[in-house]
């Protein structure tokens, strides 16, 4: 029984570390000036005029965040 509890705890810790790592990667991406500019423009106004490049950056950043949240929910 103790071994099962230890294994469960180890799996939970591993999942937590993976979630933290994913969030750190998203945060690191946000430190890129181009990505930060695209996201800031989108937050500033709903109809922001974004370039195609900015739109792609924004979409991929949001998708990364969504996938990280989904994985946290499933864990």
Topology readout:
Elements: H1 2-30, H2 33-44, H3 52-74
Helix pairs in contact: 1-3, 2-3
Order of helices and strands: HHH
Structural Rg:
17 Å
Helix percentage: over 70%
In what range is the share of β-strand residues?
under 5%
Cα shape: elongated
Q: Number of DSSP helices?
A: 3
- Structural class by helix and strand composition: mainly alpha
Overall number of structural domains: 1
Quaternary status: single chain
End-to-end Cα distance, whole Å, is: 22 Å
Mean pLDDT equals: 81
Number of distinct beta strands: 0
Low-confidence stretches: none
Q: Sheet bearing the most strands, described? A: none
Short description, anyone?
With 75 residues, the chain is an all-alpha fold.
Explained architecture:
The chain is mostly helical. It has one domain (2-74). 85% of the residues lie in helices and 0% in strands. It is elongated, with a radius of gyration of 17 Å. The two termini are 22 Å apart.
What labels describe this entry?
75 residues; single chain; 3 helices
């Amino acid at each position: 029984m103790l071994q099962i509890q230890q294994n469960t705890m180890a799996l939970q810790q591993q999942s937590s570390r993976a979630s933290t790592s994913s969030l750190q990667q998203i945060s690191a991406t946000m430190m890129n000036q181009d990505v930060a500019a695209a996201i800031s423009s989108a937050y500033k106004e709903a109809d922001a005029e974004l370039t195609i490049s900015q739109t792609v950056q924004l979409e991929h950043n949001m998708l990364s965040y969504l996938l990280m949240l989904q994985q946290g929910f499933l864990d």
